[in-house]
Design a protein that fits this description.
α5 packs parallel to α7. This protein has a 6-stranded antiparallel beta barrel with strand order 2-3-4-5-6-7, surrounded by 4 helices. The chain is globular and about 50 Å long. The protein is of the alpha+beta class. β6 and β7 form a beta hairpin. The chain has 8 helices and 7 strands, in the order αααααααβββββββα.
Length: about 210
């Protein structure tokens, strides 16, 4: 991907709430997306904030909420983030279909005209898909720095962390300039191809 300058991030956390709390009367910005995502840093099962953010009791059954203990939450986190930013896609209004989280993210983004393959460069708050089919991961971009000369240094916040994938944590990663294809190498040593990305703002606006 093409290089981008470092972008300043807001350190302020956003209060969890409904679409009105976050979007009502306001224009959603990239800083809003990043602030909301970072406010979830450190949440994990069985913290009620984690459970309610990912699986609202108003939508999900008690059994599905309990199953979060053993679900990888990377794409569930993205779904929840978009819901709280005001995205009213029918997928997000219906009970979760277990095993469909990544495909849900892709479908919602495509329906909003927000899905990209490997063309272009994601910005702050956008969602990146890495890995091979059946071994996929998605994360939210929270920082970009192209000043080191070896590629794009990326800060992210990721669901699917911890021993059972039931935690949300910050990560750092590199999109190396030396690779023949767009690769994602994170701070845990995982080296995976980038398969596409989604514009979070367009998702929020497209189904507001």
């Amino acid at each position: 991907p093409s290089s981008s300058p470092r972008l300043a991030l807001s350190a302020a956390s956003m209060r969890l709430g409904s679409r009105t709390d976050i979007c009502g009367g306001w224009t959603v910005t990239r800083d809003d997306v990043v602030s909301l995502a970072l406010s979830c840093d450190g949440w994990r099962w069985p913290d009620l904030r984690y459970v309610e953010f990912l699986m609202p009791a108003a939508i999900e059954s008690a059994a599905t909420r309990a199953a979060l203990a053993n679900m990888s939450s990377c794409a569930l986190f993205v779904r929840a983030l978009w819901r709280h930013l005001g995205c009213a896609h029918p997928i997000l209004a219906a009970p979760y279909r277990v095993g469909h989280a990544v495909s849900d993210v892709i479908q919602i983004a495509r329906d909003a005209g927000a899905w990209h393959g490997t063309e272009g460069t994601p910005g702050l708050g956008d969602v990146v898909l890495v890995g091979e089919p059946e071994h996929e991961h998605v994360y939210v971009v929270t920082g970009l720095d192209a000043t080191h000369g070896d590629g794009m240094h990326v800060e992210s916040i990721d669901g699917g962390q911890g021993p059972h994938g039931a935690a949300i944590e910050r990560r750092t990663r590199l999109w190396p300039s030396w690779a023949s294809e767009w690769r994602d190498v994170n701070d845990l040593g995982s080296d995976r191809p980038v398969r596409g990305w989604a514009e979070s703002l367009r998702v929020a606006i497209g189904f507001a």
